[in-house]
Design a protein that fits this description.
Radius of gyration: 16 Å
Strand content: 15-25%
Largest sheet: 3 strands, mixed
Shape: flat
Number of strands: 5
Amino acid sequence: MKEIKHFINGAFVDSASGRTFEDINPVNGQVIGRVHEAGRAEVDAAVRAARAALKGPWGKMTVAERAEILHRVADGVTARFDEF
């Protein structure tokens, strides 16, 4: 069964609470995975990581440079869509 964790500060992490919920296929009702439930700890960690990232190279880039990177990420997701 697929396990979905949080991606924070470059790493996949469990929920601090350990709580998860089922990911259910809406077509057939079958459980296809477990998702780690986000809470205050995960949100706080993600915000800290985002603020730190803005102090590094990402924050020094122009909007156009950041947009180009995000477009490349989107292209990569589209190319691997079936894996998601």
